[in-house]
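Blinded run. Sample ID left blank on purpose so nobody reads anything into the name before looking at the predicted structure. Input follows.
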Amino acid sequence: MPGNYIRKTEKNSCDPENLKKALEEIRNGKEIRQAGRAFNILVLESTLRKRMTKENPESSRLGHKPVFSPEIEVQLKE
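Blinded prediction complete.
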């Protein structure tokens, strides 16, 4: 009988709402480290820097990038 799943990593575990607020503070001129501490974001400074340079900083995805676009995947399903 299988046991209960226990997550092995803490990746992508910060609260998305706090992350959004921290990114907004950084855009308003607050330093990255201060914003991370203010909202209890337990991620590295590099993560906040990466999110600032992304086109859509709120989106996060673990794993590899998809090979096909969603439209092409729908066509392949048919």
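Unblinding after everyone has recorded impressions. The chain has a mean pLDDT of 78.
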